[in-house]
Design brief:
Elements (H helix, E strand, L loop, with lengths): L17 E4 L3 H12 L4 E5 L3 H4 L7 E3 H9 L4 H6 L1 E3 L2 E5 L2 E5 L1 H5 L3 E3 L2 H15 L3 E4 L2 E6 L7 E5 L6 E5 L2 E4 L6 H4 L7 E16 L8 E4 L6 E5 L5 E7 L10 H11 L13 E15 L2 E2 L2 E3 L5 E2 L7 H22 L3 H29 L6 H14 L3 H12 L6
Helix pairs in contact: 1-6, 1-9, 9-10, 10-11
Length: 407
């Protein structure tokens, strides 16, 4: 919902072209695009700079996304420090199966933890280009979305006073629980949601990766995943009941399940270490339509959520930021409204493509543990096809890398 403006006289209220709510990958990339084009903007973030630069999140970036950052001068550290992954490995029926997706498509993944990307983007926006970013704001409210004079207000953490910023546009980049999504008119909003009925225990281990690539363990006891985050830290996932308590998973139980579910002939032993994070994620997806309302445009998780099943979330956030940033620059610099008019449709084409792939891949990951012999049988048939049919393998690789041409 929107709120009445806290000021009746707004002539002395500060004004900017765009207020960006949220300093995640979408908001910060958008802010950098606008600053590079000399478009005035303000970024509002509820957390501290230290918090967002350390918050553990995704780390897999598709090549098209990295090239998009590079074209905008935002990938120097990433290209220097990221790991390049060219294949992945499935383990099922006690055997290891490598899928060389770079050979099949000519493209690869970059592994670069989101906190590092956020750190780079904050530095570029705030320190290098002097962009206006306000951390620790509280009670953000949107006003006048149905008028020609929208504005955003918030409580200033330094003074405790209410502040108001007038603007031309608001970019909602504040995630699934943010205020901007709630500002869409309820009578116009449709939220398409899919719950998988499973949970993942998300783990960070203070231990080097046990493989040189991402590993997917397909096992009757449940899915397990291994993803490198850095030379010293590894992300693991274990399928568990939705809503499970991380306290149910002692370190001993975690490592026993990982050894079982990721076990295969000739597989090297897992390199174990202290578990520095345990949290349960209930697997679900959603898509908000429309993701615009007058001068408000949603991007990233505020507009759509893709469970980490296919590692698509950060890539979709960047895709939105590229589209929205270019569209706002065209509108504010040249009066060209076509990009803003096409923004939602262009975003949703890739969103729905990734949603479909996530749903398909979920059946691969979880079908053998469903307790349904039919689902288990068809899951194994799909897996075997990936490693006997070059056509099937290439189709998987294209979707896994986002190289199907969806724009």
């Amino acid at each position: 919902m929107t709120h009445p403006s806290p000021h009746t006289d707004t002539t002395a209220v500060p004004r900017t072209a765009v207020v960006i709510v949220g300093a995640g990958p979408a908001g910060l990339t958008l802010g950098n695009i606008l600053r590079a084009a000399s478009v005035d903007c303000v970024v509002l973030e509820a957390e501290s700079r230290e918090f967002i630069e350390r918050r553990p999140r995704a780390g897999v970036l598709e090549e098209w996304a990295v090239r998009g950052l590079q074209r905008r001068g935002l990938a120097e550290n990433l290209l220097a420090r990221a790991e390049v992954h060219t294949e992945c490995e499935f383990r099922f029926e006690g055997r290891r199966h490598r899928l060389p997706y770079a050979e099949l498509t000519g493209q690869h993944h970059y592994v670069y933890p989101q906190p590092l990307l956020v750190t780079d983007l904050v530095r570029e926006y705030a320190d290098v280009h002097g962009g206006d970013i306000r951390f620790g704001v509280r009670d953000v409210r949107l006003h006048g979305l149905d008028t020609e004079h929208p504005s955003v207000s918030y409580d200033c953490p330094q003074t405790g006073q209410r502040r108001l910023v007038r603007c031309d546009f608001v970019a909602g980049c504040d995630g699934a629980r943010g205020v901007t999504r709630a500002a869409l008119p309820a009578e116009r909003v449709r939220v398409a949601r899919h719950d998988y009925g499973i949970g993942w225990l998300a783990l960070l281990a203070q231990a080097p990766p046990s493989s040189d690539c991402v590993v997917f363990g397909i096992h009757p006891r449940g899915f397990a995943g291994h993803m490198a985050r850095s030379p010293e830290v590894t992300r693991y996932y274990l399928q568990c009941p939705p809503g499970d308590d991380p306290g149910n998973w002692s370190d001993e139980r975690v490592w026993a399940e990982l050894r079982e579910r990721l076990g295969a002939a000739d597989a090297p032993p897992l390199t174990e270490g202290p578990l520095i994070e345990k949290r349960v994620l209930d697997m679900h997806n959603y898509v908000v339509e429309p993701q615009t309302a007058g001068p408000l445009f949603l991007a990233g998780d505020a507009a759509h959520l893709t469970a980490p099943i296919a590692a698509k979330g950060m890539n979709l956030a960047l895709h939105d930021a590229f589209l929205l940033g270019d569209a706002l620059v065209a509108r504010l610099g040249k009066g060209d409204t076509s990009g803003l008019g096409e923004y939602a449709a262009r975003s949703l084409r890739r969103v729905w493509d990734y949603q479909e792939f996530s749903q398909w891949l979920s059946e691969i990951y979880h079908g053998t543990a469903s307790g349904d012999p039919y689902r288990a049988g068809t899951t194994l048939a799909r897996l075997r096809r990936l490693f006997t049919s070059p056509t099937a393998a290439t189709a998987f690789a294209e979707q896994y890398l986002g190289t199907d041409g969806t724009s």
